[in-house]
Design a protein that fits this description.
Length: 153
């Protein structure tokens, strides 16, 4: 069956989840301005395919409005596709920041010589796990001339 191309479309019963059917009927009425009954009949006639249903309703001359939908030019569609593709590949800012945090290490040094190096996250966890005891030890070691640096791996 060709959907819109058929002159007379035979009503077929295709099993569709009622919630999905209702959502499709609602979206089709919103997009085309037809009644719920016309939208339901068109969807049934076109095997619940939205595009074929819109074409079918247009062919019958029942489409009164396109609601808030805009008809886009080919250039606008190309630009939107490009923008969407770019969005798919961009990492969210929060993900970038968390990756930066996990790529750091804490270095303990004295007089230019490194004595310890471990992930920054481990140092933060040690402070919480020891109820601040690690922070007190870090403060005492700084009084003895040790320095703490945060570096990239």
């Amino acid at each position: 069956m060709e959907g819109c191309a058929a002159e007379v479309i035979k009503m077929e019963s295709v099993e569709v989840d009622p919630a999905i059917a209702l959502e499709k009927v609602y979206k089709l009425t919103e997009a085309t301005g037809v009644s719920f009954e016309d939208a339901r009949n068109a969807l049934r006639a076109c095997n619940w395919d939205m595009i074929d249903s819109m074409c079918y309703l247009e062919k019958l001359g029942k489409v009164t409005a396109y609601g808030e939908h805009k008809i886009f030019t080919q250039e606008e569609l190309s630009q939107m596709k490009k923008d969407m593709t770019q969005l798919e590949y961009e990492e969210p800012a929060a993900k970038k920041k968390s990756a930066a945090f996990f790529s750091k290490k804490l270095v303990i040094a004295k007089e230019g010589k490194s004595y310890a190096s471990f992930p920054l996250l481990l140092g933060v966890i040690a402070c919480f796990a020891t109820s601040g005891g690690a922070a007190v030890l870090a403060f005492i070691s700084m009084m003895l001339g040790y320095e703490y640096k945060i570096e990239n791996y």
